[in-house]
Write a structure and sequence with these properties.
The chain is an alpha/beta fold. Among the domains are: 76 residues, Dna Ligase, domain 1, CATH 3.30.1490; 154 residues, ATPase, nucleotide binding domain (Nucleotidyltransferase, domain 5), CATH 3.30.420.40. Helices cover 36% and strands 30% of the residues. The protein contains twelve helices and 21 strands. The strands form six sheets. Strands 12-7-1-2-3-20 form a six-stranded mixed sheet, with helices on both faces. A hairpin with a 2-residue loop joins strand 9 and strand 10. Helix 1 crosses helix 3 and helix 6 packs across helix 7. InterPro entries: ATPase_NBD (IPR043129), Cell_div_FtsA (IPR020823), FtsA/MreB (IPR050696), SHS2_FtsA (IPR003494). It is a peripheral membrane protein. It is found in: Cell membrane. Cell division protein that is involved in the assembly of the Z ring. May serve as a membrane anchor for the Z ring.
Amino acid sequence: MNRKSEKNLIVGLDIGTSKIVAIVGEHEPGQPVEIMGIGSHPSHGLKRGVVVDIESTVQSIQRAIEEAELMAGCEIRSVYAGIAGSHIRCLNSHGIVPIRDREVTEADREHVIEAARAVAIPADQERLYLEPQDYVIDGQEGIRHPIGMCGVRLEARVHLVTGAMSAAANIRKCVSRCGLRVDDLVPQQVASSFAVLTQDERELGVCLVDIGAGTTDIAIFTQGAIRHTASLPIAGDQVTNDIAVALRTPTAHAEEIKVKYACALAQLAHAEETIQVPSVGDRPPRRLARQTLAEVVQPRYEELFSLAQAELRRSGYENLVAAGIVLTGGASKMEGVVDLAEEVFHMPVRLGTPQHVTGLADVVSNQIHATGVGLLLYGSRQSAHGPRRGVEAVGGVWDRVSNWFKGNF
């Protein structure tokens, strides 16, 4: 028996608009998650976080999974997958139950969470994520851990995130077509928060802004609990598109120029710096000032941060986020992004890179992997409540082939 099959291995699958990443981690109770392998493949089947081409998404997932399996030396059976898109909604709900034996037990806690979960949501939405914020016993507020406390009536306040049934079903279908099982679907901003936020920030109040390629996902925390989630349909792809249109260059070259030379604050780009811009068709490439590029990029980032600020204001928590803003996601890596964000938000801003993991930590200490690492950390929390083997040693290939046939025919 291969040594790895005895370990509790977990897989996070970040299904993004620009790339699909599979990260394999090993979880031992009481220990940080150790990253064993990672696989990444460009994604062409999603638009603004939502699957629009199943075939192409299945192929990208398959490639990312195979690469991760090779690196970790294991066979992946199930994954914790991320979900994003402007269909994501949130609401804060609460439930009340009597305490059975005058002392709160785990069963009472489960009952009150069920009571809070039983809230009407639109017929085309499904519940994706639920997190208790705090508990109230006989009017005594702000209780974090109610078990063992005495009282007559228990209330729970919870944060509930819902998403479109069709979007969730399409992600599950893509994953099952690869012969894999979905352990859980987790909203991407919730996953990223596990990877990049510190406990102090959650307590003080913080707003996480995860800027991907297709969506910008927001999560607001105060007093240690999640209070508000949202998704904006403007992100890195719009910046690439602006560059392609303004500099009259093909989209693939625009993406390359953005990654290599773009700057979100025009005053940081020196006038004498120039870049080479490929032209469309067989025209010769041109040289342009880097400042010209920054002047194209800056307005789009200003718009993005203004929309995020409007969302923060609308949530009612703007004055409660003392720790400020944490930016993460691939499109937050650009020079000048933090400076521009501080100008727009008038708050401290920092870049959030994935933490709380060991092993290949240097490989994943990049904002691009915030969601993937967060899914792993979420999975490790779930498996602490009950073992769920997502990976087994290399060997059960026949099962894998038969699963693939079931998924495809």
